[in-house]
Write a structure and sequence with these properties.
Length: about 200
């Protein structure tokens, strides 16, 4: 915690004074973020760092393996779906991004089974990506290539699940909301964006 508080002191000493006007105008006028990113909890894959965003520009919801569950308005506690509802229906963000990444521990648990001490929640959570696991297991490449394929299949699965939400499918077909997929390599720092043909490619520089 001391390390975190030291970081907070640095923030107060530098970033706060530089960005004070931004925070004050966001406090007075409210937020109008242009994107909602569904990312992974992984500490190495911070959407704000990767997209170099300022306060107020991007909503972020992070969970294990950047998974979007299917639309299921029941009595369960749907944290990710609640964030989607807030971002899409209340704030009307025009862009929704599923951001996956290399070396994802959640996807590793999907492929190899969750660690024994992560079976209360991680294992059932990851089980929603079973179809992505099956597609990856049919692939005959190296374990690293298979993991990357599974990570990218999970991104596509999350995008497909987004369209099961009626208030996402509707603005998508109306053209007011655009869905995007992207995969980030921790090792190289390069982002690959999902293309119309299903492949992932770095954006133009
Ligand atoms: Zn991850």
């Amino acid at each position: 915690m001391e390390k975190l508080l030291a970081g907070y002191r640095r923030f107060r000493a530098s970033s706060w004074s530089e960005q004070r006007r931004i925070f004050e105008s966001l406090a007075n006028d409210g937020q109008r973020p242009q994107a909602l990113v569904v990312g992974c909890v992984d500490s190495r894959v911070d959407p704000g760092v990767i997209f170099d965003t300022a306060p107020g520009e991007m909503l972020t919801v992070r969970n294990v393996a950047n998974l979007v569950p299917p639309y299921a308005p029941d009595v369960a506690y749907h944290g990710t779906s609640a964030a989607l509802e807030f971002g899409v229906r209340v704030l009307a963000v025009p862009h929704l991004v599923v951001l996956g990444h290399g070396l994802c521990g959640g996807v590793q648990a999907l492929l190899e089974g969750a660690p024994e001490n992560a079976r209360d929640f991680v294992a059932p959570w990851m089980s929603m990506a079973e179809s992505a696991r099956e597609r990856a297991m049919r692939f005959a490449g190296s374990p690293q290539e298979r993991a990357q394929l599974a990570e990218q299949e999970v991104i596509k699965l999350s995008l497909a699940n987004l369209l099961t939400f009626p208030w996402i499918a509707e603005p998508v077909s109306a053209g007011t909301l655009t869905l995007h997929g992207a995969w980030f390599s921790i090792r190289t720092g390069v982002l690959a964006v999902l293309q119309a043909d299903g492949s992932f490619a770095p954006p133009p520089v």
